[in-house]
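Open question from group meeting: does this chain pack into something compact, or does most of it stay loose? Before anyone orders reagents, we agreed to write out a predicted structure and look at it together. Recording both the input and the output here so the notebook holds the full record.
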Amino acid sequence: MSAPSGAATSEVAVRLLDGFAVQRSARDVALPPSGQRLVAYLALRTGANRTAAAAALWPETPEEKSQASLRTAVWRVNRAVPGLVVAQGTRVGLAQDTVVDNREFTDRIRCMLRPPAAHRPPPVDEDGYTWLLSGELLPGWYDDWVLLEQERTRQLRLHALEAGAYRMTAQGRHAGALELAFEAVRLEPLRESATRAVIAVHLSEGNAVDAVRHYEWFRRLLADELGLPPSAQLTALTRGGIPAPASPPVMDK
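Structure tokens returned:
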């Protein structure tokens, strides 16, 4: 079934972070489960081949039936939000002006992680990067096509939290820096770079005891979970062998 006439406008937004929703004029629109999965799948892409979309969304269904299910899902979504899904030829996608929060979120992170101009300190977000304190992609969704995107978004967010913590520390905003660093630890307790950010903030603030306390917590966790010790660099940082770094390594783009 092709999309009905009438394109979706920019007042239509798809939310994937911290839960799924489709909103029109800031009001939630109810979609059936098949429609939710179709919209989420397309929101994670700039478009998809019909056959690939049908196979991903209905993986255990014969091709003819999965294609029929796709056509039905497109019709149901466009009945609720006219023009949201555009089906043309072998391609299917969301209307071009649809706002997708995960796209904006990851674009903002990439902009934040971009290396600053030479001899200029990286800017600090006015709100202290509080927008990074949430942003889990489609929690509770376990489809194969979701899992990789969840990990990609999580890794970007972890790098941004650590970078934000260092930037806040450089400006003496230690409470906000700790909030970011601890959120990175919460997301991935075994990630050494997250623990390093926490310790660096404590040391910058002159709280060596807190730095050692967090190091010991991480050391025990790492031993219990993986049977490994912390790196020599982390140990030296905690014990005062080297100064806290001014900024984390820049991600490769």
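Observations to bring back to the group:
Residues 50 and 63 are 11 Å apart (CA to CA).
The mean pLDDT is 90.
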